[in-house]
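PT: before anyone asks, these are the final sequences, not the draft ones from last week. 859 residues across everything. Please model them as a single complex and drop the result in this thread when it's through.
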Amino acid sequence: MRFPFPPILIYALRRLLQAVPVVILIMIGTFLLLKLAPGDTVDALVGDMGGADADFIARLRAEYGLDQPVWVQLWRYMTKLATFDFGWSFVYEQPVSTVLMDRLGTTLLLMATSLSIAFTVGTALGAIAARRAYSATDNLISVLGLVFYATPSFFLSLMMMLLFSVKLGWLPVGGIKTIAGFYTGWDHVIDVAKHLIMPTAALSLIYLSFYLRLMRASVLEVADLDYVRTARAKGAGEMRLMIHHIMRNALLPVVTLLGLQFSTVLGGSVVVETIFTLPGLGQLAYQAVVQRDMNTLMGIIFLCALIVVVVNFLTDLLYARLDSRIELA
Amino acid sequence: MTSYFRSLGLALAAAGALTTASAVAQAEEVQKGGTVVVQMKGEQRILNPGLRASTGVYYITGKIMEPLIDKSYEGYEPVLATDWSSSDDGLHITLKLREGVNWHDGKPFTCDDVAFSAMELWKKLLNYSSALQANLESVDCPDPHTAVFNYSKPMPMDLFLAAMPDLGHPVPKHLYEGTDILKNKYNTAPVGTGPFKFVEYQRGQYVMAVKNDDYWREGYPYLDRIVWRFINDKSAAAAALESGEVQESGFIGISMADIERLSKDDRFDVGTMGYENNVAHSTVEFNHRNPILADLKVRQAMYHGLDIDYAIKTIMRGYAKPGRGPIPTAGGANYTDQVPTYAYDPELAKKMLDEAGYPVKDDGYRFHLRHRPAPWGEYTQLWAEYYAQAMKEIGIDVEILTNDAPGFLKGVYRDHDFDTANGWHQFRSDPAVSTMVWLRSGQPEGTPWTNQFGWKDAEIDQMIDDAASELDPAKRAEMYHTIQAKAMEELPVIFAIEHPFISVTSKKLHNHHNTPRWNSSSWYDLWIEQ
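LR: through. Structure below.
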């Protein structure tokens, strides 16, 4: 070994280097794609204002650099990005980095809770369903999974809102906290948690059904393999058999899905955050598209690309941990 | 009921029975304090009405910053200006300013603020206002509470007054002078003289303002706090109203179906009251560069093909009237209904199209049009769909090209890439500062909501220019009647439906929608049942 580093570090370094061209390509691609959308942020702004005169419009375009050719705009943007300068948001009149950091927490909180609920509950239910395959329990779980799978999250969100907020009055309609409630300490934590119940449920149920269905199929497959029969012949109890021999192997495809879906959850959060008016990246992205806020949108995409690259790296590490035959190379 | 109380109160007070009079006053039982939560559809980029003329901006900042003059149902109401007069030649307008008014940071409000705002913001930077104040030469301050506006061409007093409630918001000079005005931090943290003081703007969530204890109207405001919550999803907004989290949703913030449903719910007041100054027209706009549409007979036939009453009933749920040209009924003296109209008559429409030389061809249509609908809410889309359907009846194929706002504005106003378009356009108190830009040719290329339709009529242009500087209100009104009739005859644009906006308001609110531009006004007398 020529390098005095542990192999995992070398692996990480190589993955990092591989990520750079990927991110650059993503950024250039999205920049050009966004430029293909008709209209720019000045059109959107003037639309919001209900009209403006020609001088005003020309002055804004010049100020925002939109009077330059696309290639110049792209070059300017990429050179700034190379120094991690995300530029200025003309919609929020703040640096894009400030806007992003304000929103990142909410989205990560929403994603982390939704995905962990979806993953733990989904795999557990899937495993139970597989162990009792074709029984009443299995049927119930499978039907539930299918219903969640088939229900779009916006519909689920609105139905929950109708039931729990309008009819029952238990949960707040939207937002991240009670405005003008001025809660502090634990009251604040409980307040935020109450606001997150419905969005988390809406976002996690659909993914829960993915994991459930995949885990059920995977457990059924693994349970028939030779080494499980061997373990059973050696006298391993059902519990030990399930946890040590079946689950660990059945989890591999589910973990793959977890890594892949991290990015789709980001997409799903656009809908849920917009309906529940949660100040997260998803809602920000939607607004940024509507307002043609290029810098903010590019910042979000950059951040999401980074998150996905990191998550994929972690997934690979997790593979190696779950199945020692997989080597990091 | 109220008028009975009022006259009773007057009679008793006149009789000197003061104790009884105060008992009558208590029948209103004003409750002080409390928070009102308002739904907003779109996020606002900046919160400075001196820089952005837009109802979204007034909806928030109207409570924080005040105009010189506002409008009530009785007429113009003195706010920061107490008195106004014009010289005989119309070149000088003198305003007396209110004394003893302080900005929220404690500095006094004086003529310097008005002069600075007028010259640096209203004349140079404020949309709509830069056209209005184009001839403003200077603003003199003979004393701290007198402002004299000097114009190089006569400025009609009624035009000036009509514009002031929207386009007359002063900003504090001491916070703006010597800064880059467009980038000034107070553009998103407004400092005004209004009944409420700005607290914070949490992007994507809310704007909050609290009671101004130093407000110049003694004893006001009643509320402790106003919160504007940004809820873009219409169904979620309706749920927020129903669950009581939000008490007011203005400017048609929820779907028409929900508006109709909540109008039958006794927890809400639903209606168009308080929007008399914010009336809009749903339109059909023609690209006159298309030779087919340049034919007057075709445009008239198309108007005959539209069943306006049906559209009002089904799309606007009855909250509208048929349009009568570029000036709505809310235009006051400048409005007339003595104009040519086009009754729904598809057979006549077909006959006219045949006569114009566009018979039905082999594919079943007379001709094909590409239509761009404005994405301004549900009813605008529905109106586009109805229009396409109605045109099909008379043998015109309309292909709808849907875009979001920036795409629509670019397609219609910058690229002129359309045959017909539809949208709605607000009438802003006076035709000279609003709908006339629809008819006047020579608008700078690419300016949204102006005549980018390739329509040019020297006679109308001349009439518009003359009316804008006519000082005699009666003569001016007459000129606008002529323009209105001519516009209905020539149909450069079909001003099909006149409609105010609609509010859904919780009945817990009192003194709401009591001025013609209530959602933009200061809400100093609004109170809420606790």
